[in-house]
């Protein structure tokens, strides 16, 4: 029951990676000629309006709690990282390696009388590494790794051994060739991911992904390029394809995109990609549900000043789902960030996404614990589709005090609107929608 409750309900609306809150780095400590060290420590006090990601109609209702979270991090590198991409200049230089390494850890301790909430206190750890060998040269090699041990409560009160404790690894090894004068860039990458849940009753969600990706980019102007990209993923579930287990289907995913990336004015950058994607769920022969259709992404970034960034993004995409076959998203994001003259940093972004799930387990056939779904959209050949609307708001405000100290405020809002519910043989009813507010006050010392 736990897999179906957790993953058919609130979990798909969450961020792929749990957040270990940190502040922006300071000037750092010089190490050698080019590297900079950035250590930091923060003490966080927060309030969570919905610890278990529950709907008001769920058994036990919505439970709120305050929490504290001491965190620490340390990073070192000769280049910064933005959106998980190492900001290495494309031009040729005498550099042998561009890199950035960062380790972060935090312990979330709930401050509540309710023992069901207190036992959700957990340790989180993440390690991110980015390397480019021979950057900007005719042939270069890049390695990116993100490894984390993360923990989150489920969307019902569970014991400490039954929440979403998991190992999350994502890595890529990329080879890049720049023939001729460097206008043409060709890259090929091997991709590897692992998602492993520590709770023994979520074994059907343990997943290994192997894939390849290639990109050809032709720079036809100093700051403008056309791009052709193809990616293939093989999603392999580590356990249990037996009937009645709520089994997950192994699958092939293909994505092909073509488009433009470049600077369209002095203060504006555009990336626009469009293409086609499809999936093949290998063993879903009774109720096949495969994605076939358009995918694309457009991002417009505007820099009115050197301290201000405004962006807009629209996207249609699909992803393998841990409960059912896949989900397809269509939506947009808008946001802005600004650094004031007195060094205060402010950021705000909002997202609205329409999400549709396909190929949910057929009650009594694919899964034994669920007896039926209600308020769903469509029922064809025994396969069930589900539609959700997701709204997310994130805001940050940080004020440095001298060279070392920072005080910060954060507020996050997550809303999932869904008419979907699942009924279980033991009488439990899981309502999908939820509303969650999280507010934090952060005091940090960082370099």
The DSSP helix count reads 2
Portion in helices = under 10%
How big a fraction of the residues is strand? over 45%
Taken from the alpha-carbon principal axes, the silhouette is globular
Rg is 23 Å
Q: Could you give a short account of the major beta sheet?
A: 18 strands, antiparallel, barrel
Write down the secondary-structure element order: HEEEEEEHEEEEEEEEEEEEEEEEEEEE
* Poorly predicted residue ranges: 1-17, 379-383
Q: What structural category do the secondary elements indicate?
A: mainly beta
Mean pLDDT: 88
What is the end-to-end distance? 46 Å
What quaternary form is this? single chain
- Beta strand count: 26
Structure write-up:
With 447 residues, the chain is mostly beta strands. The chain is 2% helix and 60% strand. The chain is built from two helices and 26 strands. The chain has helices at 2-8, 115-118, and strands spanning 29-31, 35-48, 65-77, 81-82, 85-86, 97-111, 122-133, 139-150, 166-177, 184-197, 207-221, 224-237, 251-265, 268-281, 292-302, 308-320, 326-339, 345-358, 370-374, 379-380, 383-384, 386-401, 405-417, 421-424, 429-431, 434-446. The strands form four sheets. The protein has an 18-stranded antiparallel β-barrel. Strands 19-24-25 form a three-stranded antiparallel β-sheet, covered by helices on one side. A hairpin with a 2-residue loop joins strand 4 (81-82) and strand 5 (85-86). It is globular, with a radius of gyration of 23 Å. The N and C termini lie far apart (46 Å). The model is unreliable at 1-17 and 379-383 (pLDDT under 50).
């Amino acid at each position: 029951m736990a897999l179906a409750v957790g993953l058919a309900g609130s979990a798909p609306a969450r961020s792929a990676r749990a957040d270990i809150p940190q502040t922006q780095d300071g000037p750092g400590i010089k190490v050698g000629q080019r590297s900079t060290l950035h250590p930091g420590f923060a003490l966080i006090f927060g309030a969570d309006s919905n610890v278990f990601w529950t709907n008001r109609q769920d058994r036990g209702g919505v439970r709120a709690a305050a929490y504290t979270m001491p965190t620490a991090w340390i990073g070192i590198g000769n280049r910064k990282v933005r959106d998980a991409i190492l900001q290495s200049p494309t031009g040729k230089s005498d550099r042998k390696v561009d890199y950035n390494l960062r380790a972060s850890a935090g312990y979330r301790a709930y401050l509540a009388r309710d023992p069901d909430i207190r036992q959700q206190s957990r340790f989180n750890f993440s390690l991110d590494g980015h390397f480019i060998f021979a950057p900007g040269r005719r042939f270069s090699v890049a390695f990116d790794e993100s490894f984390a041990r993360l923990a989150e409560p489920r969307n019902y009160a569970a014991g400490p051994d039954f929440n979403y404790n998991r190992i999350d690894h994502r890595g890529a090894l990329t080879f890049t060739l720049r023939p001729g004068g460097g206008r043409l860039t060709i890259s090929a990458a091997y991709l590897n991911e692992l998602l492993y849940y520590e709770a023994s009753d979520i074994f059907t969600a343990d997943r290994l992904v192997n894939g390849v990706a290639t990109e050809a980019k032709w720079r036809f102007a100093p700051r403008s390029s056309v791009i052709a990209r193809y990616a293939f993923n093989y999603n392999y579930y580590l356990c249990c394809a037996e009937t009645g287990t709520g089994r997950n289907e192994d699958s092939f995913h293909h994505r092909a995109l073509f488009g433009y990336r470049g600077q369209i004015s002095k203060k504006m950058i555009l990336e626009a990609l469009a293409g086609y994607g499809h999936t093949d769920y290998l063993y879903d022969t009774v109720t096949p549900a495969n994605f076939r259709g358009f995918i694309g992404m457009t991002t417009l970034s505007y820099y009115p000043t050197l301290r201000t960034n405004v962006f807009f993004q629209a996207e249609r995409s699909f992803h393998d789902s841990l409960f059912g076959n896949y989900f397809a998203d269509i939506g947009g994001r808008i946001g802005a960030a600004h650094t004031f003259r007195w060094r205060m940093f402010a950021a705000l972004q909002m997202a609205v996404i329409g999400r549709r799930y396909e190929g949910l387990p057929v009650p009594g056939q694919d899964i034994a614990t669920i007896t039926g779904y209600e308020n769903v959209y469509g029922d064809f050949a025994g396969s069930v589709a589900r539609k959700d609307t997701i709204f997310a708001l994130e805001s940050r405000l940080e004020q440095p005090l001298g060279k070392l100290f920072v005080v910060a405020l954060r507020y996050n809002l997550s809303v999932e609107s869904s008419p979907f519910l699942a009924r279980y043989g033991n009488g439990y009813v899981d309502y999908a929608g939820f509303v969650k507010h999280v507010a934090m006050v952060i005091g940090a010392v960082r370099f």
